[in-house]
């Protein structure tokens, strides 16, 4: 047993009292005054720090009504999927599906796989943001960054890079339509999110924006006939980035 | 066939037993609190209150601040009670809210004071506030004084592990970082405490 072993055992969660009772540790403590001092400090408690519980009870009783616990993860994921699919479907119904016949089989498969993977990362990040102390399987920032950086990169890889006429005019139409779809998806998801208690509203807002943006780019890919890398990366990319920024700013303001 | 006496798991004693009793009590009370049971709300305050107070005192060293933080924290717990999922451990949920209460309070303090200091700026020297209802022993102050020599992230991890007897997994859930990161912070904290205790000892000897 060395001093470092002792620090390692403690940092792995071993209780000081349990450790001190181990013969190997006791032998080491008898020889090492530094470890003995550390152990003595750890065994000392800070005692009771009593505060006014009457005031806290009053707070806990204020407007006390039965609340429904957060639904199970499966229900929440299904509601997220329904919102994304519903909003994207509504967008396609209203804006048409002119882009769909122009997509090659490989483009459609790779694009759909990318959106599915990013949604599979955004969904658990969103789930864990609903509950304080929830296990964070996917870092929300990583999921949002993957979507925001991966989409333009994928557009450049899958679609021809050329500058055609009407870039701005048609682009603005795409951004407006996409932003509307993203706002609708994010708004509906916000209603579900309110059932939980996000601790970091800025981050949660960005996540809601990213999921809304994902619904928007999926819908735009089907409805927009301009399958050029520049148009997709710039204008469809904006329909993705703007909701993320708007969600982040709105979330920070609200939080 | 084993007798019921042989099958029974002997109750754990000491810190481990106390933690198990706390967990069991919190697990029993939280669903009742969600069902608007007023007696459960009072019992929850009495059970979880000392845990929160110890956490805030260890981090701030200021008993006046502890009162404010505990009240603010209960306000948030009350608003967040629907986000607790029945049957899951209560302590990481509680401590995650407590942690954000303190961070937000620091942000507010920073905005109002306009000072550019780290979160350590919020930490005061352990006070000797003699107000009734707050036990602030010399021993507590000594323990907290050593904790305050650590950087904030290490102090937070160590506080949860030491004063609230939380496991590495529970601290990881409450702080939103990986278990490996918690272990690394705790390891560095123990090394820093060795140094701090050495310094304290020298200071005592010089006096």
3D architecture notes:
The complex is a heterodimer of chains A (255) and B (207). With 255 residues, chain A is mostly helical. Chain A has two domains: 1-62, no CATH class; 74-254. Chain A has eleven helices and no strands. Chain A has helices at 3-11, 16-20, 23-31, 33-43, 53-61, 73-95, 105-130, 140-158, 167-193, 201-223, 229-254. Chain A is elongated. In chain B, helix 3 (38-60) crosses helix 5, helix 4 (63-80) crosses helix 5 and helix 8 (168-175) packs across helix 9 (179-206). With 207 residues, chain B is mainly alpha-helical. Chain B has helices spanning 4-7, 14-34, 38-60, 63-80, 90-113, 138-147, 152-162, 168-175, 179-206. Chain B is built from nine helices and no strands. The model of chain B is unreliable at 1-11 and 127-135 (pLDDT under 50). Chain B has one domain (16-206). The radius of gyration of chain B is 19 Å and the shape is globular. Chains A and B meet through helix 1, helix 4 and helix 5 of A and helix 2, helix 3, helix 4, helix 5 and helix 6 of B.
Supply database-style keywords.
heterodimer, A: 255 residues, mainly alpha, 2 domains, B: 207 residues, 71% helix, globular
Count of separate structural domains of chain A: 2
Greatest chain-chain contact: A-B, 53 and 79 residues
Q: What oligomeric state do the depicted chains represent? A: heterodimer
Structural class designation of chain A: mainly alpha
Mean pLDDT of chain B: 79
- The total of helices of chain A stands at 11
N-to-C CA distance of chain A: 49 Å
- Tell me roughly what share of residues is in helical segments of chain A: over 70%
Shape of chain B: globular
Uncertain runs of chain A: none
What overall geometry of chain A do the principal axes of the alpha carbons give?
elongated
Unreliable spans of chain B: 1-11, 127-135
Which percent range fits the helix content of chain B?
Answer: over 70%
The whole-angstrom Rg of chain A is 26 Å
Number of strands of chain B: 0
What share of the residues of chain B does DSSP label as strand, in percent?
Answer: under 5%
| Run of helices and strands of chain B | HHHHHHHHH
